[in-house]
Amino acid sequence: MFKAILKRLRKDQRGLTLIELLVVIVILGIIAAIAVPMLMGNQDNAHRNTNAQNEQILQDAINRFYIDKSTYPTNATTLNDQLTKATGSPATGPYVKEIPTIKAFTGCTPATGTGTINGWDYASGVISAPAGCK
Asked: What are the φ and ψ backbone dihedral angles of 116, each rounded to 5 degrees?
């Protein structure tokens, strides 16, 4: 097939002109300008959905801890040990394999400071993602 196309070309016409090449580059640039923002938006949505799902999983783990222990994990500092390790007699847990780190994206800043763990806010048995992160 390729040979048939080459045979149809005149001997002195062996490639693309500069104008044809520039048109192709412009078309590719337009496609990229449309596609890149759409893909970046999808990535932010994926991070937002991941944070919402992780928040639900962590809250379920905290609730299971409460059912077993009749108390909520004491604070964000000890939350990791209390949810990821088997404790007590008889041993209960672990409730989650690990505390996931919050996924940061445009408009989302993970929480820091007292009462936070891996970017999550924790207080009195309730874990939540910072505003704009879910």
From this structure: -125, 155
